[in-house]
Amino acid sequence: MRGARDRDDRPGGPGTGDAAAQEPAPESVPAVDSRLIVREEGFRGYAGEFRRKLRSGELGSLPVVIAVVVIWTVFGSLDSAFLSAQNLSDLSQQIVGTGMIAVGIVFVLLLGEIDLSVGSVSGLCAAIFAVLNVINGMNEWLALLVALAGGAAVGLLHGFFFAKVGVPAFVVTLAGNLAWNGLMLQVLGTSGTVNIPGDSIVSELYSTVFESPVAAYAAAAVGVGLFLLASLLDARRRRAARVPYRPIAEIVLRTVVLAAIAFAAAVVLNRYQGLPLALLIFLLVLVVLDFVLRRTGYGRRIFAVGGNIEGARRAGISVAFVRMSVFTISGTMAAVGGLFLAGQIQSASQTSGGGNLLMNVIAAAVIGGTSLFGGRGTVWSALLGALVIGSIQSGMNIMGVSNAVQFMITGAVLLAAVVVDSLSRRSQKAAGRA
């Protein structure tokens, strides 16, 4: 009886016996990473991957794209002037200064840190250019380089105190926000305002527009062509390495979508004046820095440090170098943005870099999809976030809404973006991906 009970207790239940026990075990099948399904199963796998990302909180740029569509739909229905070619063209120029500074903030946020000095740094660099070129007669190109070098030096100094001395980035950049604002006032002197001529390089970089329709269409065609070429080369490289790659049909679909957006934008710009040089420069900067982040070892080190600093350190990554270089980039981009803002208003004054600029650039980076917790985001977040902030301000200006209400609405949008980021990170933790 005992032997019978033992046989009955075996896995498989009564009657399995020795014959069942001698059956060969089925060959074990290795688990497949669900992240690879999209490239292994084509569009059906892509759809499944998209659903999986939504469930696990990997929303990417989807929320901000939906936000732009909603904002444009609402303001367009309230006042048709919002979607006019003139307003959209003006909007594409107005977001450049804020967007440039936000690009530097994206780099810092990828480390899970913050830079509170970018507003003051942008104003200081604009003041340096204006005083050297307009007051002291220095060659405008040399004055431009000195201003950019000043922004890089300030960022490097912040990075040194943070990475080498160990002072928290929040404290270092908060002190810098005060110090560089004071230095800007000192540079401007008693006049407090330096007007920049309309034919200055800074003014022309902002205001120049390529009026020929060919320019906008050519820029759209080149951008789409480069995207297609890069996608095909990446797929071939991954195929040669025997790793999952995007199918040709998916690459074609992505290219068609991008082409529709690019040429639609070209049509709108050509209906007013043409392609703004400032917008073209902004897009070129985004393309270059996106390549640096996603296609170079340096970019991978930034994500590694932001995702897991101890793991990055054990992998042999120089954490101090990454931190110092990222803050240098942030200072440099603050200088670039400050010069564009100075060109927009054709002056450098005591209010340069002040007001709500700091909050707007941080909001642009976060609203665009860059995580406050580090390790997740792209430089395109700066463009999307700046577009959201600029669209809200433009729409409310057209409707005559007061600045007080604009600040409250912008703050609410920023809070919503942070909430989405927090919920996304919680979902990723639950899915074992954070």
TrEMBL record:
InterPro entries: ABC_transp_permease. The chain crosses the membrane at residues 61-85, 91-111, 118-135, 141-163, 170-194, 214-235, 247-269, 275-293, 321-345, 357-375, 382-399, 405-423. Residues 1-11 have a biased composition (Basic and acidic residues). Keywords: Cell inner membrane, Cell membrane, Membrane, Sugar transport, Transmembrane, Transmembrane helix, Transport. Residues 1-30 are annotated as: Disordered. It is a multi-pass membrane protein. It is found in: Cell membrane. PANTHER family: ABC TRANSPORTER PERMEASE PROTEIN YPHD-RELATED-RELATED, XYLOSE TRANSPORT SYSTEM PERMEASE PROTEIN XYLH. Part of the binding-protein-dependent transport system for D-xylose. Probably responsible for the translocation of the substrate across the membrane. This is Xylose transport system permease protein XylH. It comes from Streptomyces omiyaensis.
